[in-house]
Each structure stands twice: as structure tokens, then as C-alpha cells.
Amino acid sequence: MYTIFSEKHRMRDSCTELYGGEFIPPFECPARADLVREYIDEVGLGEVVHCRQHGLEPLLRIHPTDYVRFLEGAHEEWVAAGFHGEAIASCWPARRMRDTPPAHIDGKLGYYAFAAETAIDEGTYEAARVAVDVALTGVDFLLRGERAAFALCRPPGHHAARDLYGGYCFFNNAAVAAQALRDRGLARVAVLDVDFHHGNGTQDIFYDRDDVLFLSIHGDPAQAFPYFSGYADETGSGPGAGATVNFPLPPGTRFDVWGEALEEALRRVARFGAEALVVSLGTDTYERDPIGFFELTSEDFTIIGRRIAALGLPTLFVMEGGYAIDELAVNTVNVLCGFADA
After folding, report:
1. Per-residue confidence at 49, pLDDT binned at 50, 70, 90?
2. CATH number (domain holding residue 302)
């Protein structure tokens, strides 16, 4: 299995995260991708290749120009306005407030953000752009006939909606990849999100479409970020009615229950007639993850990979979350090895 990687992910190295009423070093950090990259070499999973550039067009198929331009200039505008530290949203167009993009960067941040934990530093835009190229290079491998590829994206993407960032995500790498598969000839594509947190951004992007099936297995949003998305009754709208499937699960969920949700999700992918599968691969379902409440073990991740492989679809794994740093690489690569060895 090819792994696509770029050392430019380190350009995003934010110092600030708002968590539990304190500013702390972010859980989402450069070490995450580097450790996974190193472990892939250690186990001999396959060749690691650098991404190639794909230009803005595939990105603009998902994210509007005004949003892309905002992210490109946000940190520079923040500094020019005289602010110190990293750019963090502090005011939002909440219920009953006017929903108009402000001219001032302090207001722009709130307009385009849905959460305050995610700061924008000097290298954020470039790292996020390269992460999209990593995912698109994975698409290239699938379309040339590879059974699977692993896009080692950082920053992650599944929380990024069409024109919203948050949850450490800026551009939706998995959604851009799924759209690219459609644009390059596939009629139906499925996106399976196995991250602990609901893929609210991916759902938002494809909610009214019937050509991309979105499925997410995640912590009950009544108890877990992103809180306002991911309930079981969110099933799509208009032409997309029935093409969104959510499996919210309670605190303490172990693999016996989680695995049942996975089996049902895979059955739905098969019934949908998908020609390729994009997996938003987060391993924050792990029992010792600091910001999750599931109880999966490292061995469970190997089983997940094997079960996904049983679908027999060309599969692109796209890196999302996972914050138990000491076990992140093992858990992530276990999924990939489980798939590759099936």
C-alpha cells in the first residue's frame, strides 16, 4: 500500500488550543503525522511517496472562493490588525444575530469558524493546502488501479464544512477526494468516517446529494464534540434523503457494539453500489485517547481494517484524528495492515 506524505505538514505548528477553560498545547500537533510516518517504515507497509500538486480547481469544487481566500490571508490580516499571538475566533453570528461577513479580521474569524479551540498560525494555510494535495495524490493511485492508498493528511479535514473551519480542520481532505473521484468518472462514491467525532463537515458538504453516501460512527453528540451534528435522524435532504447515515454511540462503547455499527455501515455501502470508498481514518476511538470516550483496543483496529477490506472496493484512507500519541502510530497502521493483509 502506498502512503502519501508531505513534510510541509509541519508548517502548521500552532501553540494554542482552548480546552477546558485553559490555553494548552494543541492535541493536534506535528508529532502525530511524523510518528505514523516512521512506524509505516518500521513495519514495511509499503512505499512512502511525496504528494504532487493539483492546483486550486479540485479544492474549489468543495470550498467556495471567499472561504479559501479568507484562510489564505487570515494570519496576515490578524497581524496587520495589531493582534499578538495566534488568530482565534471570539465572536460568532449566533442565533438571531445577523449572518453577514464582517470586514474586520476579528469578525471574519467568527464568521468562518464554528469552534474556538482551533487557532490559525502563520503556516496553517499552506499546510492545509498541501494536505489536500496529499489526498488527491491518493485518488491518483486508486484511479491508476491500486487497491488502496493511505493519505497521511495533516491537518485533518472532516470537521471542515463548505465555508467553516474548526475541530483542527480547514479544508475537507476526504470530501475533496470523494468529489475528485466523481469528477474523474466514478458514478457513486462512499465516505465512511470512523473517527470518534462526527464528520460534521463532510455531512454538510454532501447532505443534499445522492451520488455520495456518507456514513459516520461516532460519539453521541449529546455528549461529544461537535455537539450540534451527528444525530441518527440526520439522514440527508432533497435528492440526498437517505444518503447520510449516522451511528451515534454512548460513552464506554466497546468493540462488540462499535463493530456492529461498522458491519451495518459496510452493508449500506454495498447496497449503495459504491465504486470506491474513502475512509476518514481517526483512531481517537482508542480506549486511552484523551478526548474520546470509546473503549477500542489496539487489536480492534486490525479487525477494522480486515472488515473494510472485505468490501472489495478501491479504498483511500485519509488521516483524521487520534490523540493518544504513544499509541497513535500503532493504532493507525494496524488498520492499514489489517486491510493490506486481508
Report:
1. very high
2. 3.40.800.20
- Does the annotation mark 159 as catalytic? yes
Q: How far apart are CA 309 and CA 327, in angstroms?
A: 23
Q: How far apart (Å, rounded) are the C-alpha atoms in residues 228 and 210?
A: 23
Asked if residue 121 is part of any domain, the answer here is no
Q: Is the pTM here over 0.85, yes or no?
A: yes
Q: Give the active site residue among 9, 159, 197, 198.
A: 159
Into how many domains does the chain fold? 1
Pick from 248, 268, 271: nearest CA to 258:
248
pLDDT at 161: 98
| Domain span holding position 319 | 2-11+28-52+127-341
Asked if residue 46 is part of any domain, the answer here is yes
In a domain, 300, yes or no: yes
pLDDT, mean over the chain: 98
Q: Look-up: residue for cell 479504498?
A: 315
Helix/strand/coil (H/E/C) assignment for every residue in 39-102: HHHHHCCCCEEECCCCCCHHHHCCCCHHHHHHHHHHHHHHHHCCCCCCECCCCCCCCCCCCCCC
